Amino acid sequence: MTLKEMKSLNLKRNERMDVDYIKGILQPTPTCAIWDKIWNFQAKSDDLLISTYPKAGTTWTQEIVDMIQNDGNIEKCKRAPTHLRFPFIEWRISSKDCGLDQANAMPSPRTLKTHLPIQLLPPSFLEKGCKIIYVARNAKDNLVSYYHFQKMNAALPDPGTWKEYFEDFLDGKVCWGSWYDHVKGWWDAKDKYPILYLFYEDMKKHPKCEIRKIMEFMGKNLDEDVLDKIMHHTSFDIMKKNPMANYTTISEEIMDQSVSPFMRKGAVGDWKNHFTVAQNERFDEDYKKKMMNTSLTFCSNL
Fold this sequence. Notes:
Family: Belongs to the sulfotransferase 1 family.
Structural class: alpha/beta
Number of domains: 1
InterPro entries: P-loop_NTPase, Sulfotransferase_dom
GO biological process, one term: 3'-phosphoadenosine 5'-phosphosulfate metabolic process
Subcellular location: Cytoplasm
Pfam families: Sulfotransfer_1
Strand order of the largest sheet: 6-3-7-8
Shape: globular
Oligomer: single chain
């Protein structure tokens, strides 16, 4: 989007997107305005959907998938920035920046992206039996990463202070809703539909193993040297320098990377640099209650 278009939307620096609720889940108002179209989106049986809670390894997974689809050809994966290669189905800033239109114009087979919780996913994805890759990240690191992302992203609400955002996250009063409901909802769906459920921490600890899982799920078969190449190309340090993956092609009027880089740390355990002792105790108590009735477990340290 051009600077002129940004100004016409009043999304200049220090101004923020309004939000509203869709079935109890906060979303930017432009998304709310076209919700019926999003809900009725027609998936195709050969679509591949990458689904995550925001800041849980979405771009990382997209780059891995693109590398696998292109047999490790780095130049092909640099054909366009991430947001143009992978339509973000519920995202809309302007009539010229709408994931839905981008997806509908894309030839098959399509690889799409969403942050929607399972109950808001357009039904056609499940009805058509689309393959879905879901990535979940431990709640503490996800909270920290999302906070920094909202600070630099004018297309989302101002997060307020760290203390305020901490409470909003626990209450699910952030865009795309409760982290707890999101990860549990997709976890419960994984045995009913063709969903590969991955963990950010496993991808950090055993990247080649997780890349192989994704490759096999996609029905591909690549040589070990190609997997090694993909692992290197999709490492945090390499992706951070890649303008086709680090979102530096987006206007600073939307994403001000001087406030916080889009690719900030990518670490496991960074929450320790932000949580106070009291916050950690409060978080653990709240976490225990909300995760009581699930077999889903996370690792917040490596």
